[in-house]
Amino acid sequence: MSTQTELNTITSTLGEVATRITALVESEGPQMESDVYSELVAAERTIGALLRRLNRAARRI
Questions:
Q1: Element housing 55 (H / E)
Q2: Secondary structure element (H or E) that encloses residue 27, with its range
Q3: Which helix (H) or strand (E) holds 28?
Q4: Who's near 7: CB < 8 A, 6+ residues apart?
Q5: CA-to-CA distance for 31 and 46, rounded, in angstroms?
Q6: How far apart are CA 51 and CA 28, in angstroms?
Q7: pTM, whole model, 2 decimals?
Q8: Low-confidence residues of the chain: pLDDT under 50
């Protein structure tokens, strides 16, 4: 598998994870414990940053 293909697959998978976390935060956020909510929001932001970095790397190939 080429590096470009591998990065596309990883980016796609992480995008799906990010979408699921966002949906969870938006739908269940008000009912969550505040520390759980905070951790999920932090994870959402971290995945977003990782996606941006992976997309930059993919553009350089």
A1: helix 34-60
A2: helix 3-28
A3: helix 3-28
A4: 54, 57, 58, 61
A5: 22
A6: 24
A7: 0.84
A8: none
